[in-house]
Amino acid sequence: MRRTKEDAALTRESLLDAAERLFSEKGVSRTSLADIAGAAGVTRGAIYWHFKNKAEVFVAMHARLREPVDAVFQKLIVAGSGDPIRRVRDYYVYVLEETTRSERRRRLLDILTHKAEYVDELKPAIDDIHGVHKRVSEAIAQIFVEAKAVGVLRADVDPELAAETLRFTVHGALSIWLLWPERYPLAERAGPLIDQILNGILVKPLND
């Protein structure tokens, strides 16, 4: 039984690896489950045992993309100690810098942002991804609410809007960088970019 479970896990990872390659090369809409099975060297029955449709493949790919980021999120945002604003800063700097370091993360983000049509069969994937981003924004917004209550955030700042602005800026920066990585030194600018946004909502700038 143990060997069977291990084999199933390896097959699932092989299918996700194949899906990554094909989605990156052909786009999501032009890749079928049969294509993925063939590229992974397994039968069509094998892929349907793991995934009912492309939406499930897409959700699994997104989960695999999120794993290292979620670990950092849990460490810094959920269970972290010390200056909460500094932890928010470190989390988003990590998200930006890790994308420049990890080829897999870069490829997966490129698929998610530029090579997928979020219609019809991928709607469940949209809902799943939206749920993840919503949880992150809510956690950051709560930190900002608490920071505002003790006078760390400016009185005119809306914590929820501030959290959304930060998230949208990071995702926008990543989306543009993925198109022209050689034109923008994202790793070098990650810290200053996040500092610029945070300093705009803080009573006292981070570096003071």
UniProtKB/TrEMBL annotation:
<dbReference type="InterPro" id="IPR050109">
    <property type="entry name" value="HTH-type_TetR-like_transc_reg"/>
</dbReference>
<dbReference type="InterPro" id="IPR023772">
    <property type="entry name" value="DNA-bd_HTH_TetR-type_CS"/>
</dbReference>
<keyword id="KW-0678">Repressor</keyword>
<keyword id="KW-0805">Transcription regulation</keyword>
<dbReference type="InterPro" id="IPR036271">
    <property type="entry name" value="Tet_transcr_reg_TetR-rel_C_sf"/>
</dbReference>
<dbReference type="Pfam" id="PF00440">
    <property type="entry name" value="TetR_N"/>
</dbReference>
<feature type="domain" description="HTH tetR-type">
    <location>
        <begin position="9"/>
        <end position="69"/>
    </location>
</feature>
<protein>
    <submittedName>
        <fullName>TetR family transcriptional regulator</fullName>
    </submittedName>
</protein>
<dbReference type="InterPro" id="IPR009057">
    <property type="entry name" value="Homeodomain-like_sf"/>
</dbReference>
<dbReference type="GO" id="GO:0003700">
    <property type="term" value="F:DNA-binding transcription factor activity"/>
</dbReference>
<keyword id="KW-0804">Transcription</keyword>
<feature type="DNA-binding region" description="H-T-H motif">
    <location>
        <begin position="32"/>
        <end position="51"/>
    </location>
</feature>
<dbReference type="GO" id="GO:0000976">
    <property type="term" value="F:transcription cis-regulatory region binding"/>
</dbReference>
<dbReference type="InterPro" id="IPR013572">
    <property type="entry name" value="Tscrpt_reg_MAATS_C"/>
</dbReference>
<dbReference type="InterPro" id="IPR001647">
    <property type="entry name" value="HTH_TetR"/>
</dbReference>
<keyword id="KW-0238">DNA-binding</keyword>
<dbReference type="Pfam" id="PF08361">
    <property type="entry name" value="TetR_C_2"/>
</dbReference>
